Amino acid sequence: MMPENAERYDFKELLKLPVGEATDVEEFLGPVQVAWVPGKGRGLVAARDVGLGELLFVNRAFQVAETGKLLEATLRKLEDPRRCSDEEFQSFFRLSSGQGKGPLPEFPELKCRMRRRDSPQPDVPLRSVNRRLVKDILDSNAHELDTSDVAKLQSAGKLSSIFLTASLVNHSCRPTAARVFLGDLMFVRAARDLRMGEEITDGYISVLQPVFERVAGIRKRYGFELHEDRGVVETALLPEPEVRAMLREMDEVESLEEFQALSEKIQRLVHGAILRLPSASAAVQQAAQRLGLGLGLEKLLLGGAGEVPVLVATAALLEHLGRLREAAQAYSRCCWLMEELAPHNAYHAKWALEALLCANRAGLPLAEYVAYAGKVLACHIGPGTLETVLRCQLGEKRSRSLLAGHSAQVRSWPPGEVGILHTLHTHGDPGSVSSMDLEFHLDEKVSPAEVEISVNQMLLYVQVRQKCFYLVLPGKVDGEPEPIRLSMRGPGSVRWPCAAALIMVVQRLWNFVKRHRKKLIASGIIAGGIWYALRVYLPRAQQRMFDELMKALQESGSSSDDSKAQQRSRARFQENQLVSDDYARKGLRSYEPKHAGCFKIDKCQQEVKEAKAKDKKIIAFKALQEECLSLLASAVYSIHVNLLLHRIINNIAGREARGRLSQQGAGATSKANGEEDASSMKELIDSTEYFLKEGPERMAAAARKAVKAAAEAVPLPPESSVNSESLSTFFVDVFNRMDQDVWENQKGASLLPPAQDQEKGSGKQPTFGPMARLGAIDLIVCL
Ligand SMILES: C[S@@+](CC[C@H](N)C(=O)[O-])C[C@H]1O[C@@H](n2cnc3c(N)ncnc32)[C@H](O)[C@@H]1O
């Protein structure tokens, strides 16, 4: 890795090195020389005009060590002649030990040094070294190496180092140089265009802080006072209490909206400050003029009012929320500020990369973002390093597709910013302005019709849409300057605004499609599925649901009809029951005396009374008991049979006949069924009449027989006492026997008139008609 000239360093390899790693790479000394700088001691200046990004020098660390161990490591190296040459030893002790710590020697000679190998001679005596002095030199000149990890390629631990040439670089709150650490080397480049003799400066502390914090930080850490034009202007225009209030608010802000609101507040504060410039003291105005400010004044003041951390937080939050287009713009705006504050330092490089990556994810056209990030990285690390850094971050394939077709053409403003860059040339004496040429580079989103320009005293206002820019003129304006010659340049072609806009839209669409091919295909399939579901499946499903609903409604309607019919039929049935029970009661009036005449209760009582002997009395008693129980059983059974026959006639037989009628349809009743129903009904009516006339005797006989048989199974008094349980068993037995006699054995003759016994003489028992019989059995089971 021997550089033939300044740009022959192999950055692909250098970028892979861990921070602080020793290298064999040759140092480089470019267009720089040592000079006295008023108020600062020695410093490095440009030996000729230098272009932006030009390599100024490459310096190898004299010593690298863990932070906190640098002093010991440096002492050991200085003491040992095998490791530290006399020339290096002398150069080290020519370094500043801090302001006011003794006179500075003449300019040390700048030279390139090869990496020194430890000498093999074993017996060289060690040097004696002033520990205190070494400590002071390190305090004034040491660098921490943990800011170089821009590309996130290297894991920078907490390492400190001391460089012999780079230690001649003074601090500025508007640095002119950018440095990066690669291995044990420091690369220093021009961060702006430099004129011959212009000082090469670096930021010892963060120059993104307000002036009072920068002053205090330098005083505390390096022990010298800051006297700079930036600080003078800032102190005069930005009142410290107002900036402190902003900083306090910054600590309390929690949401994106609050950050955005705070950013707007800071911008209002800064715009108010700029308007105060014309009424500021002559010293402040001269300091502003020396800074050569145009838009830079706004940027510097925004930096001093704390806009950068607010903007970085806003960008990070937008990125986190997936609002990538806005995030890309916010990072671009950070870069826009850095152009003035600390161009091409590690932060600037980081935010240029973030803007590019967000724009890529947002599907924005990348040409400008690539060009800008390429420019910033070229000035921060070296030419062509964007590709290497992207490859390490995104991988070979993605970085290649991101960079495809984009030339690394260097553009001098951050993309994504609705704004203008300007070069301002004035003619006439300094101190008054009567005519000027202004050249605006508009970005493609701005047309000249959207730009308004007005001049007032030292300020020239340029209003682009909602944004206001202030240009501080190098002298007072005498009246309205005439003529203002304005030329517009840049990609914002206004000749064919519609066509240009259309082409831009198509281009963006095409880029988007190319980038998100797979997602678009998947989205198309999903959208097709949703369309099918909505247009085809949904109407079908709705129709099916509608049909089912109608069916359910019909069913519920018919079931309610059914239940009404059931209610009606039940009411009719109950009414019929009442009617038939009434008939049954009337029938019993003639039945009762006949039934009573069938039982000889009085005679049995008499026999009990008349019996003298105990056993005869018991026999008489048993006969009385059987007669009474038979009367009871016969009476109950008769009542039931009587009710039963009437209910069968009025309800059951009638209902069965009606049911058959409705099943077959009105008027469709078969003749055979009709005749059968009529003959069954006649059987029942005849049976009822026969029962009421002849039944008492037959019931009494059946009851007596059943009681006699049951009394043999269930002992009765006086042999045994009875309780409700034994009585219940007894009567169940009695009625079962009566059932058998009357129904099951089909000795229906007891209930049937002799005329019904059609097969009389045939040897067969007479029976009920099948329908009447079924109904009767149902009813008996219920009873
Ligand atoms: C790293 S040295 C820079 C070179 C130093 N001027 C010299 O002559 O060796 C740091 C010292 O330079 C001086 N210095 C650097 N920047 C300065 C500044 N902006 N204003 C005043 N003194 C500065 C301070 O004395 C500081 O301690």
Distinctive features:
disordered C terminus; 6 domains; binds S-adenosylmethionine; Beta-clip-like; alpha+beta; four-stranded mixed beta sheet; 783 residues; 23 helices; six-stranded antiparallel beta sheet; rod-shaped
Return the structural class.
Answer: alpha+beta
> What percentage of amino acids are in beta strands?
5-15%
Write down the CATH topology of the largest domain.
Beta-clip-like
Overall form: rod-shaped
Main sheet summary: 6 strands, antiparallel
How many structural units, i.e. domains? 6
In the CATH hierarchy, the architecture of the largest domain is Beta Complex
Overall pLDDT:
78
- Strand tally is 18
Q: How large, in whole angstroms, is the Cα Rg?
A: 59 Å
Helix content, binned percent: 40-55%
Q: What is the assigned CATH homologous superfamily of the largest domain?
A: SET domain
Tell me what the structure shows.
Residues 750-769 are annotated as: Disordered. There is one protein chain. The protein folds into 6 domains: 1-205, Beta-clip-like, CATH 2.170.270.10; 209-305, no CATH class; 324-416, no CATH class; 420-495, no CATH class; 516-551; 575-664 and 674-782, no CATH class. It has 23 helices and 18 strands. It is an alpha+beta fold and 783 residues long. The structure holds S-adenosylmethionine.
Strand-helix topology:
Layout: H1 11-14, E1 28-29, E2 32-37, E3 41-46, E4 55-66, H2 70-79, H3 86-93, H4 131-141, E5 143-144, E6 159-163, E7 170-171, E8 177-182, E9 185-190, E10 199-202, H5 211-222, H6 229-237, H7 240-252, H8 256-276, H9 282-290, H10 295-304, H11 307-320, H12 324-341, H13 346-362, H14 367-380, H15 385-394, H16 396-403, E11 420-427, E12 432-433, E13 435-442, E14 451-456, E15 459-464, E16 467-472, E17 476-477, E18 484-489, H17 497-515, H18 517-597, H19 601-610, H20 614-664, H21 671-713, H22 724-744, H23 770-782
Parallel strand pairs: 7-10, 12-17, 13-18
Antiparallel strand pairs: 1-4, 2-3, 3-10, 4-6, 4-9, 5-6, 8-9, 11-13, 14-15, 15-16
Helix pairs in contact: 2-4, 6-9, 7-8, 8-10, 8-11, 10-12, 11-12, 12-13, 13-14, 15-16, 18-20, 18-21, 19-20, 20-21, 20-23, 21-22
Bound molecules: S-adenosylmethionine.
